[in-house]
Design brief:
The structure is a homodimer of 261-residue chains.
Chain A (H helix, E strand, L loop, with lengths): L6 H10 L2 H6 L2 E5 L1 H8 L7 E7 L13 E5 L1 H8 L7 E6 L16 E5 L4 H13 L4 E5 L8 H7 L7 E5 L2 H10 L4 E5 L5 E2 L10 E6 L12 E4 L11 H17 L5
Parallel strand pairs in A: 2-3, 5-6, 5-10, 6-7, 8-10, 8-11, 9-11
Antiparallel strand pairs in A: 1-4, 2-4
Helix pairs in contact in A: 5-6, 5-8
């Protein structure tokens, strides 16, 4: 239904621009033609309650029936979104749950997980790459970036809306949940030691592969088999998103290259 | 030699904060303990003319003889660098050349190249990952990010100072140079068509592998064999840095996994 812009709506958007406001709000924001297009094609489309679109927007989006639509000027849209350049469209939706038990049992062949990955750009890039690699699950521990912060959604191209995200207090809790779901192997990536990810046969065999944050790595006391990415350049360790990408596409390679190791 | 902060030095730093100023300047800036440490361990260390360090900095850097040293307060350092948080140290050095003929012939087994990759974060991440994968060459076409912009240096962890960067007007010029250096295979990554990068036997056989920018891809008229990264998720195409990472570590995998394909 086409409605007018109200003070209540403006307040809601202002609130979502701060980290503190986001913590209290049951909503999240998705911006831009590309991200909103993905969102509207995902199961989360039915949670969209409001679309704010620029008068200049010429893309024919279809909104769910439950969704109100507001048309505003480009300037106004920019102010509402808090980004430097207007992206033509903003969607407001109920924040999906990240509670582990709120979804059906995971069906992925293996699980990619991140431990305390605080950088929103890296967090989003890993989500996007996991989705491209064909996964539907993404697990993370507390201390990671807010999975529904605007910057994470931009970096992931809204991949989180077509995946199941599960947040755990720590690696122990994550591992216990994995075992209950019959993911029996638990691998921790390590820049310095462990079996090569290219040689480890069990790496994707009902397993969880954990990527640490660049700042902290994975705590040395954590239980699990170490795997490493060989690095002939002997340079600084890889960025977390690059490490995750290598693991994710080693899985794709084994799937698609006819089972050759 | 320990010297005082002069207006000339302040002007020089102010100039390097704008894109326009950087274009005119024969210098570039490297910031932060981690990046400056890499730089001072690289062949480019001898080009460093000035180090500005915080009075609080406790890392024992060794500077080349030719380098003047200025000690300033944290506040002052932050103003000079233009970043939000002071990183303790700033180095000023002569901008390395990116002219293709200014270096010895390339010795890498294959060459990674990017075409008009404008995003500084992606550009820097690819440099860092290429260096980690053991390469020493990095080629790019005009229209890419400034390889010595502060943001690129931060993202690459100063990898460019221990590599040979060569810039070309366009892909034709790049290819001609490659042929003169006996890199005879020319591959263009493509999100939609081509042989799988995991199956292509000649991918690293005296070849150049070109990664396109996310915004433009590679122009469809460009000559070369297309290779693609299989993407079971059927999601948006991969970020350029992720695509480059997959190609670079497919090379590492073939090197380290005992020649298994």
């Amino acid at each position: 239904m086409l409605i007018g812009l109200t003070h209540r709506i403006e307040r809601q958007f202002a609130e979502l621009q701060s980290r503190h406001g986001r913590k209290k709000s049951p909503f999240c924001l998705c911006e831009g033609v590309r991200c909103c297009g993905e969102l509207l094609n995902s199961p989360a489309a039915s949670s969209v309650t409001l679309a704010v679109i620029s008068e200049k927007l010429r893309c024919g989006f279809e909104f769910p029936e439950s969704c109100d639509v507001v048309q505003v000027s480009d300037d106004k849209l920019q102010k509402l979104s808090g980004t430097v350049t207007s992206q033509g469209i903003l969607l407001l939706l109920r924040r999906p749950s990240v509670r582990p038990e709120d979804f059906p049992a995971p069906a992925d062949p293996f699980i990619i997980a991140v431990d305390q990955l605080g950088d929103p750009g890296n967090f989003g890039t890993i989500l996007r790459t996991a989705r491209a690699a064909g996964l539907r699950e993404f697990w993370f521990t507390a201390g990671s970036a807010d999975a529904y912060a605007p910057k994470v959604i931009r970096s992931s191209l809204a991949a989180q809306f077509s995946m199941q995200l599960r947040e755990f207090a720590d690696l122990d809790e994550l591992r216990q949940f994995a075992e209950r779901c019959n993911y029996k192997n638990f691998f921790l990536t390590d820049p310095h030691c462990g079996e090569s990810c290219f040689e480890c046969e069990a790496l994707f065999d009902r397993s969880v592969v954990v990527i640490g944050s660049e700042a902290h790595g994975i705590e040395s006391s954590a239980a699990g088999s170490r795997v490493t990415i060989p690095m002939p350049g002997n340079f600084e360790s890889l960025n977390a998103a690059q490490a995750a990408t290598i693991v994710l596409f080693e899985h794709v390679r084994r799937l698609t290259a006819g089972g050759k190791k």
